Amino acid sequence: MTDDSNLEIMIETEGLSKYYGDFIAVEDLNFRIRKGEVVAFLGPNGAGKSTTMKMLTGYLAPSAGTAKICGMEVAHNRNEVANRIGYLPENGPLYEEMTPLGLLNFFGDARSMDSSLKNERIEKVIEQCSLKTVLNKPIGKLSRGFRQRVGMANVLLHEPEVLIMDEPTAGLDPNQVLEVRKTIKGLGKTILLSTHILQEVPQVADRIILINQGRLVFDGTPDELKEEPSLDSWFNRQTMDAA
Fold first, then answer.
1. 151 located within any domain
2. What is the pLDDT of residue 183?
3. Percentage, residues of the chain above pLDDT 90
4. Which pLDDT score, from 0 to 100, does residue 241 have?
5. Using CA atoms, how far apart are residues 52 and 25, in angstroms rounded to an integer?
6. Residue 41 is part of a domain; what is its CATH number?
């Protein structure tokens, strides 16, 4: 576990649990993420990653325990948390007939952003996500990599302090993965991202949180795994042992 005594805690769970009848999706999950950390959130399919992310963003209410963003309990501060957080779900919906520029203007207006601030932020996220070459092309005609960048630009538009990303590189080719990874590393935000591409974890993450069957299995740094033969073998052993 990393020492978080001297930095602001931006994401925190305490006893976080989600049950569907007798089925345990997440149980007694406890972790803290400090300001500026990029944390890889790992686990096999069905481990509870997406459920946890939805509780952190307020899309789901926990059955027990608490989720906090920037010190605020999500369940009781939905609007305040929404202003502090950017959530990029896997295969997030985009309006395919719109252009990236049109979409960003639309969501800026939907957030009631002042016109000058909106224009300033649009210019900034276009640069951050390298969208200049496709600004006026229909989103439905863009490659998966560019579509993912449009989604990222949209969640960055209101300048959130915390980003939560569910499989941001899923389905991308190696060059697109590199571009998205570069973008993520350059944001300087507190980021929790899930991924199944274990090889990219040391390249993008300061820390790893691994869950299996809804429970915490590992919380540490990539350096702690340097002696492992491979991340794949470590992942398999951890998740099978925890099953």
1. no
2. 84
3. 69
4. 54
5. 9
6. 3.40.50.300
